[in-house]
Structure formats: structure tokens, C-alpha cells
UniProtKB/TrEMBL annotation:
Keyword Signal: yes
The entry's keywords: Signal
Highest taxon above the source species: Bacteria
Database matches in InterPro entries: WD40/YVTN_repeat-like_dom_sf (IPR015943)
Signal peptide span: 1-20
Protein name as catalogued: Uncharacterized protein
Length: 288
């Protein structure tokens, strides 16, 4: 009897292990230079440059956004000339706002036939990277200057260009995350070589936006996500994906199915860390 019970349990354990392993997956279908992902409506939005060559400042108008529902891809925003190098995405008040080179582009999710709202950024702000929601405003990072802008958003008219104003400056401000009243900012050197300034920062008082390093670890930081009380991040240095204890600054590496050439803007969806490999045109789903 005991032997029968043991033998019956073994297949069950093997099947459970197989299910756990299957949560790690690499998406490639329809992707071309995918820079960011965003959990949305039970699935995952994936922003793609679609350009001939990898150029984050291109103006080819071939950018598009796909939606992955767990079983397949479909087009969410087509390559119709509106987007060129779509990066960070944000959904607030029924609007999908996308960072695209030197502008913001907002699409109504309530009226998909409506023309997108285009908001040019001030002169010289050519590497608009990421967008987060803080209370009733959007914060927008610009990597080449380190400036972070704030603007209002309305559920009917979308982001308000007239309200755009400088909020603060963080060296190489790239990916951002707002979690439990704290703004985290990933720093990336536009020159391509990180210095002591290129760390992960946090702003604890949004009314007095002073950035302080979370740790002294330097890198070419891009994406940020919080899960289980841990801060996950991507670092273009050696294609690193990491998990940081924000209390101690300790970091452990997150293993991926294959080496990454350019880990970019991340998010957590379906209990998995979703990591776009910009240069590799793939999205890695990693079970957490």
C-alpha cells in the first residue's frame, strides 16, 4: 500500500514542477525592438519601435503596440505613422499615454476612433522615457537632461499640455516607479558610461522632491518594478536583471532563460516579471 501511494504521488509532483517551470516564457511573435511593457486589462501591452535599425531617437513612424493575452498577440496601436520609438506607457483616466522621442502621445481607450493627443516636449528634451501616475498628475522623465516634468490629465480631454511644468531633476532620469508614496527613479548615463551619479534614487516627499540614492551600486538602469516588497530593476551593464532590498541595498541577480542584450522597461503581470530585451526583440516572462 505504501509503495502504491508513493508511486501515485510522484507523477503529481512532476506535473506541479512542470507547471512551475512553464511560467517562464520568451515572447518573440510580432516583436521588433520592444522597449517597454505594461500590465493592462488582464494582459500585457508591448511597445515596439518597428524601425529598420535599433535607434531610440528615430522618426520613421513605424512604432506600434501589441497586446498579449496569455495565448497570443494582437495589434493594439497600429504602425500608422503616429509612433516612432515608443518607450514608457501609462494608463490613467481612460487614456494610454506613450513616451515617444521628444513628445507624448495619448490614445483614448474609451473612444478608440478618436485622434491621438500629441504633446511636444520643450526644446532639447529629445529622450522622453517613462511616465508614472502620482495622485492626479503624470510625471514624465527625460533621460538626456535628467528633467522630470509634471502635467495634469483629464478623463475627457487627456493630458493637458498647458499644465506641463518642470517638477525636479535627477541625473539621467530614466525608468520610474511610484509605490506607496515614494517615487523611485532609475538613472542611465546618456554618454553610455555610468558614473557615480548613475544609481537608483528615491524621492520620499513628493511635495519636496529631493532625490536620494537607494544604494551606491552604479549602472545603466532602465526599468523598475515592485513585487513582494522587493525592487526589481534592469541594468544595461552586462544585461543585468536584479532584485534589490530597498532597506539594505542588497542585490541578487534574477536569472533569465537566455542572455539579454538590452533589458528595458519592465512590469509585473500574472505573477511574472516581464522583461523586454530591446536589442533582442523579445520579452522574457519570469515566474516570481
Amino acid at each position: 500500500m505504501k509503495r502504491t501511494i508513493v508511486l501515485s504521488v510522484v507523477p503529481l509532483l512532476l506535473s506541479l514542477l512542470a507547471v512551475g517551470c512553464s511560467r517562464d516564457k520568451v515572447l518573440t511573435e510580432g516583436l521588433r525592438y520592444c522597449e517597454s511593457v505594461l500590465a493592462y486589462d488582464g494582459g500585457l501591452l508591448i511597445a515596439n519601435f518597428g524601425s529598420d535599425e535599433l535607434n531610440p531617437l528615430n522618426s520613421e513612424g513605424k512604432g506600434y503596440i501589441l497586446y498579449y493575452d496569455g495565448s497570443g498577440m494582437r495589434t493594439f496601436i497600429p504602425a500608422d505613422g503616429t509612433l516612432s520609438a515608443p518607450k514608457g506607457m501609462n494608463v490613467t483616466d481612460g487614456w494610454l499615454t506613450v513616451a515617444d522621442v521628444n513628445k507624448l502621445v495619448a490614445f483614448s481607450l474609451c473612444d478608440r476612433s478618436a485622434e491621438p493627443v500629441v504633446i511636444p516636449m520643450p526644446e532639447g528634451e529629445v529622450f522622453v522615457n517613462h511616465i508614472v501616475t502620482v495622485d492626479d498628475m503624470l510625471l514624465v522623465s527625460v533621460t538626456n537632461t535628467g528633467n522630470i516634468y509634471a502635467l495634469d490629465i483629464d478623463s475627457v480631454t487627456g493630458p493637458d499640455a498647458a499644465s506641463l511644468e518642470l517638477y525636479t531633476n535627477v541625473p539621467g532620469a530614466n525608468g520610474m516607479l511610484f509605490d506607496r508614496g515614494t517615487l523611485y527613479v532609475a538613472s542611465y548615463s546618456p554618454e553610455g558610461v555610468p558614473t557615480g551619479q548613475n544609481v537608483i534614487y528615491r524621492i520620499a516627499d513628493m511635495a519636496n522632491p529631493v532625490a536620494e540614492p537607494v544604494s551606491s551600486r552604479t549602472g545603466q538602469y532602465d526599468g523598475l518594478a515592485m513585487y513582494g516588497g522587493k525592487l526589481y530593476f534592469t541594468d544595461w551593464t552586462d544585461g543585468f536583471v536584479g532584485c534589490m532590498d530597498v532597506a539594505t541595498g542588497d542585490v541578487v541577480r534574477v536569472e533569465t532563460a537566455a542572455p539579454l542584450a538590452g533589458p528595458a522597461e519592465i512590469d509585473v503581470w500574472d505573477g511574472r516579471l516581464c522583461v523586454p530585451d530591446l536589442a533582442g526583440s523579445a520579452v522574457h516572462l519570469i515566474g516570481l
